[in-house]
Amino acid sequence: MKVHLTVEKIVFWALTATTLLSCIALGVVISPYMGDFVEENQIWLIVMSLLALLFLGLNVLVAVFIYKDASRRRMNAWLWMTAVIYIPNFIGLILYFLARKQHPMHAASDAGHKGSRCPHCGHLI
Q1: How far apart, in Å, are the Cα atoms of 86 and each of 80, 102, 121?
Q2: Does the pTM exceed 0.90?
Q3: Residue 80, Cβ neighbours under 10 Å: how many?
């Protein structure tokens, strides 16, 4: 299996790694000061942790949807995934849906062809 490194993949993973490492560093820096607060407000800590996990899960689901949909439409999936996740306030998602209208599904144009299709991406085999 060949791994094709493109600029879009490198940028996506570099931004993701930077964000993750920044969050870990912030947690390490503020953890000594959170001891008294956590002892008094454990419910707050649990609720905030669950909300953070929900937000992370939502981002992963959106990224998977964008990757699959952009690949099906032969758009640059890594570039759009990066834009949707890292442009705040759903602006990236709105831009993707606007650009998506200009790229029709290519599998529909090949409907008359009797070839077999990949069950994952819909491309002709």
Answers
A1: 10, 22, 25
A2: no
A3: 24
